[in-house]
Write a structure and sequence with these properties.
Length: 119
Amino acid sequence: MLEYLFPLLMIPIYAGIFYIVLKWLKVDTHRVKRSFILASTLAAIELACNLIVFTFELDGTANTILSIGIFVFVIRKLLILKLWQAVVIPMVVTATGYLILAVFLMVFFQFFASSSTGI
């Protein structure tokens, strides 16, 4: 059940990625605040989708499609975007966020795996 709480750990990573996206979109006012709002919203949507997928025993792909689909509607209300931007941004942020998490976890386990063997 702990793996379904990963979106809560992803909020700082998502916030950093959204900060870069908002900078790319030339949003100047309250960029940090907006990036944390978007990151928290995406994490909450992913957490709700994780619970739905866990309850109905669906695949992880269904979770990704469901969370991105819901977030597209949310992001269209929060930011003025073209349709392609509203679809691409959640996919890129989610994929990049989990890639960053995977790299951090690999480095973390590699670092502590060598110290646990006694060498």
